[in-house]
């Protein structure tokens, strides 16, 4: 038996496919006699774009990394799916011409006309190799390209079995794909590490070829009707998730014209699910789909996996796809990586209530970029989200990340039911004090996503919804089917109005503009604290705190404190202050931009002076366009909305 696994556009060419790397390894272990080939058609397509002339890295990055909420990447391949080079060109142009540049629109229309030739050539090449089964993985904007390829393969070789899997196939989405596209023999919903080998066994003739007991599989009965097997009640154990095989990626990349577009980043996976989401599912978040339960690999296995991949492929940049850091890894995996023979550069998703000591340990281990899920600086809005942190916790994280030269990827989200202008305007006034901390990567009204509490529980505020416009201009399906297929939905705007949203956007843009040349740092000399400032909104440049009580209170504000807590701190130090005096000091420090005050909590904003030079060097690298793919990969398409 021969299997071909395909990674279609618009998967980035900078990283190998974790999904296909794991599946090929699973097949090699469970069915060693089966020949498995992995085709990186995304790299093939990038080379093809270059051959067309006038299309390059900027265009590929637009579709791959920046157009998810427009659906441009999927629409481009709809001409191949429906065998019509003019498929809904007018509808697409009317819908999105005001949401992209003229060059982006021109690239979309040009590719839409020409991709059928690419799909045909790719399908013929795969069929010529004689596979018995062709599988495509689909996440983000790989759906239509994968469908178009499998449709053409089925036309050319009707006996070849076809299968799709991936995040776009989870739950009702997978059922809708299988139900509406008859050229799909199978769709795997949910985790495939167990399901796919069972399907291969059935196709080989094991168990008399019966696929009716394979959990989570969509199949066709004797009459050709779509049937969905019940999902498994038993999630994968971490021991069932092998280290990925990335050799096919590097073999293909070495032959590619576009290998210089990005520096390769290896994706690794230490854990699945979300330990916070198990108890408090963030209201807007649709990540993890049907598998929220948190599971993690043993520290030894995960550490060996990282070091083995680095040594085998001579790559130092790693992107952990975990939705949240397994905290025990701080004492095991990360501490040991700090002593590893390689100077790794790792990006991780974490929770923003981490303390300075934990952030410092991450940095020593080679973590250079984090996605902490900050989302907002209002405690009240964060409670609406069920984030489990406060606004001052988020600011503390930004401060301590800056002290450790960590890049921070985060979006400022708004549009939550129950929020008001008062959750934003008082904070906007304080933004100039934060200009030395890493600014948000964007500001967006939240999207309504499948699998999120807002989607599953309409009574939370989003009862009216319909599939996002991109699905209507891409698929030839009725709304009832699009409702099952879609991940993104349009709904009535909630929360703040457009005027406040514009004020927020302007304030965040100013923050981003000033970040490069802003700093606020301190040196604690024991008997005094010296501060240095270059933020444009504050005229002072140096300041010294000499009063013993003031220096004690400033040190206490390393962590968020209430006025009452600070009053008690003065009593404990032997120089008691009353509440009015503490409040007066905090007001003065706020005027000077030394503290951030929110929800009756204050936290100081000064970073560690010793790291300021490193931070400035990093900022300059950011400004001049250093290799920042990790930050782009960290952008959360699940968290924002184009409206």
Descriptive labels:
alpha/beta; 7-stranded mixed β-sheet; 5-stranded parallel β-sheet; 27 helices; disordered C terminus
In short:
By secondary structure, the chain is α/β, with parallel strands linked by helices. The chain has 27 helices and 25 strands.
Ends distance: 48 Å
What is the spatial order of strands in the main beta sheet?
2-1-3-4-5-6-7
Radius of gyration: 26 Å
Could you give the count of β-strands? 25
Structural class: alpha/beta
Largest sheet: 7 strands, mixed
Uncertain residue segments: 622-643
Secondary structure: helix percent = 40-55%
What is the mean predicted local confidence, pLDDT? Answer: 94
Number of helices: 27
Description:
By secondary structure, the protein is of the alpha/beta class. It is 41% helix and 15% strand. The longest helix is centred in the first third of the chain and has 27 residues, at 102-128. The two termini are 48 Å apart.
Walk me through the topology.
Blueprint: E1 2-7, H1 18-30, E2 35-40, H2 41-52, H3 57-66, H4 72-76, H5 78-81, H6 89-96, H7 102-128, E3 133-137, H8 143-156, E4 161-165, H9 172-180, E5 186-188, H10 195-204, E6 217-220, E7 226-228, H11 247-254, E8 266-268, E9 271-272, H12 275-279, E10 295-296, H13 299-313, E11 317-320, H14 333-337, E12 345-349, H15 356-364, E13 367-371, H16 379-385, H17 391-403, E14 407-408, E15 411-414, H18 425-430, E16 442-445, E17 448-449, H19 453-456, E18 465-467, H20 469-474, H21 479-485, E19 488-491, H22 498-515, E20 520-524, E21 529-533, E22 542-545, H23 548-556, H24 563-573, H25 579-591, E23 595-598, E24 601-604, E25 607-608, H26 612-623, H27 629-634
Helix pairs in contact: 7-8, 9-21, 23-24
